[in-house]
Amino acid sequence: MPSNDRQRVERVPGARRAKLTPAPGTSPEPVPADADDPDAAPPAPGGAAAPGPNDERLKRDVPPHW
User: What does pTM read for this prediction?
Assistant: First the structure.
């Protein structure tokens, strides 16, 4: 098997983490996956998640060390 058919780990000088090369047959540019999904819920205003059934209780609860 040729070595260029797989992703490679590349060291980045001065960085803590290495990076992978793009997988064969893919593009390195990100693609918004939810843009074409008609069943996706619209984003909530202000970037907040939709309110859930126990949100008020979670806001009232205080960890025991406080």
Answer: 0.34
Q: Yes or no: say if 34 and 42 are a contact pair by the CB < 8 Å rule.
A: no
Burial 27-50 (b: 16+ CB within 10 A, else e): eeeeeeeeeeeeeeeeeeeeeeee
- The 10s digit of each residue's pLDDT in 15-55 is 999 998 888 888 877 777 655 556 666 666 665 677 788 88
Tokens of 20: 């992978």
Give the contacts of 31 (CB within 8 A, at least 6 positions apart): none
